[in-house]
User: Fold this.
Amino acid sequence: MEGIQCLPMNKIQGLSPSSVQLWEQCPRKFYEEKMMGRSGGTGEAALLGTFVHLTLENLMQYPMEDRVIEIARKVARDSWAEFSSSTEWVNWVAETSFVEDKAFRRRAWSSVVGYFQMENPEQVEVIATERFISATLEGVPVRGIVDRLDRSRLGGIVIVDYKTGKVPSPWFVGSKLQQLNIYAALVEEVDGKRPDEGRLLFTSFSETIATDVTAESVWSAVDTLKGVWASIERALEDDSFPPSVGPLCGWCPFVGECAEGLAEVKQRRSAGKLKKTAPAWELAAT
Assistant:
């Protein structure tokens, strides 16, 4: 790729489930974020997810019988004190002159309430929360943070991943379930026991997507990891991380530096296929 200085492979400390999805979405964006360390800034949606995750993580530290909505409200208030002093929040507020923190907190609380509508936390036997785990799987270094590990009623292990965004359409659920199976492969490699089930909890919409974890599903996820790792190695050898254009270009923070992506958003705007809420809306008009 012209003008790009590629980093050696050992600069990538390991693939995460989300980075696998990012590569499959767009190698160019993967390069910018994972190899050059450019985030393009933190958005409000990501910050809301961080705060909800923190609140639920802190709630799950309480004894099972104390995980009630009244305690959750207190936990949310206490978590806000921690979250609002974080570098990510402070910088974002300063950059955007954001003044609607009460509305932000209401949206976050609504997502926490949505969680309570999906399961009763008083009945959840938590093994671990926000567990960092890393291992080498079939020659691929993999790392990630598991939102929650539970003990099922039958004594098995359940991987739980909180999501505060929209519930994906059936065509895009596969990549989310793949992430759960990658986490399952990590847990099995490190702990010696494969989880039985994975659950995606879309808290803002009170919807759960569950999947059985099997030897076949884990093997398929690891096989995908191997394929992605090999593709990254080839990209490094060829000095080429081509963009993969599509609807998401309108939300890519690097689209202004990507000729193919910029052409895509301009074409989509002229065809009436680019939402006005897309960050690239104005850029596509130039």
Summary: The chain has two domains: 15-240, 243-286. The two ends are 25 Å apart (CA to CA). The chain has nine helices and five strands.
